[in-house]
Amino acid sequence: TDRTRLAGRKVLVTAGGTVERLDPVRYFTNDSSGKMGYAIAEAARDLGAEVTLVSAKSSIPLPSGMTVVQVQSAEDMYHAVMDRLDTMDLVFKSAAVADYRPAETAPQKIKKSEETLTITLVKNPDILEAIGRRKTGQFVVGFAAETENLEEHALRKLNRKNCDLIVANDVSVEGAGFGTDTNIVRVYDKDGLVEAMPLMSKKEVAGRLLRLAAERMTRQRVSP
Ligand code: C5P
């Protein structure tokens, strides 16, 4: 473990699940714990990187030794990420971003009245896709949580969102995905499978992902 491997490199990590507010007391969210993203941010910090963690809702304490930007919604996260993208070298997009948000956030608590209540949802911006369009040499790692056809879906995402690596996990498998302390992931690049990792702690997965990204970054970059 080389503690200076990412020295001077700026790493942006997104983590947690976005919160899409319906009214002052209610919101839509998902099961993301933030564990994978926080582990990645800590691993990058431990390799000497200057880390910015953009965190939506999580169920674990915020890590130390990095800049933390706390956000709620996908739109908040979009702005927090896009405002900082230009100065970054490496981006890990591990947040679970809600695909839709309520079309309107009611200013007051919605009162119970009719038998049915219809809520219109509108599409959120796809942050990773926007990064893929805007990037200027940043090495970008996306994530894909799937319940079927892992490889096909992951490769399609990698191409559509223009990332350099995609980390796919089958969330239907025990020991992988939301909330757990372990994960089982497969990493792909545009040519296919790069590494299939066995069941291991999210901390170990994070270390391996950082190593893969760091190797490829130096390969892609022209040294000064
Ligand atoms: O399409 P899907 O949500 O499964 O893609 C997952 C990847 O895309 C993750 O890296 C996630 O952080 C990112 N994403 C995003 N903005 C969205 C939806 C997903 O950045 N609105």
TrEMBL record:
Portion of the parent chain present: 179 to 402 of 405
Cofactor(s) required, per the database record: Mg(2+); FMN
Cofactor: record remark: Binds 1 FMN per subunit.
A molecular-function term among this protein's GO annotations: metal ion binding
Swiss-Prot/TrEMBL keywords: Decarboxylase, Flavoprotein, FMN, Ligase, Lyase, Magnesium, Metal-binding, Multifunctional enzyme
Protein name: Coenzyme A biosynthesis bifunctional protein CoaBC
Pathway the protein takes part in: Cofactor biosynthesis; coenzyme A biosynthesis; CoA from (R)-pantothenate: step 3/5; Cofactor biosynthesis; coenzyme A biosynthesis; CoA from (R)-pantothenate: step 2/5
Entry similarity comment: In the N-terminal section; belongs to the HFCD (homo-oligomeric flavin containing Cys decarboxylase) superfamily.
Summary of the function given for this chain in its UniProt record: Catalyzes two sequential steps in the biosynthesis of coenzyme A. In the first step cysteine is conjugated to 4'-phosphopantothenate to form 4-phosphopantothenoylcysteine. In the second step the latter compound is decarboxylated to form 4'-phosphopantotheine.
UniProt catalytic activity: (R)-4'-phosphopantothenate + L-cysteine + CTP = N-[(R)-4-phosphopantothenoyl]-L-cysteine + CMP + diphosphate + H(+); N-[(R)-4-phosphopantothenoyl]-L-cysteine + H(+) = (R)-4'-phosphopantetheine + CO2
Annotated GO CC locations: phosphopantothenoylcysteine decarboxylase complex
Domain DNA/pantothenate metabolism flavoprotein C-terminal, first and last residues per copy: 6-214
EC number(s) per entry: 4.1.1.36, 6.3.2.5
Transmembrane segment boundaries: none
GO terms classed as biological process: coenzyme A biosynthetic process; pantothenate catabolic process
Binding site residues for CTP: D99, K109, P125, D126, I127, L128, F143, K157, K161
Ranges for region Phosphopantothenate--cysteine ligase: 11-224
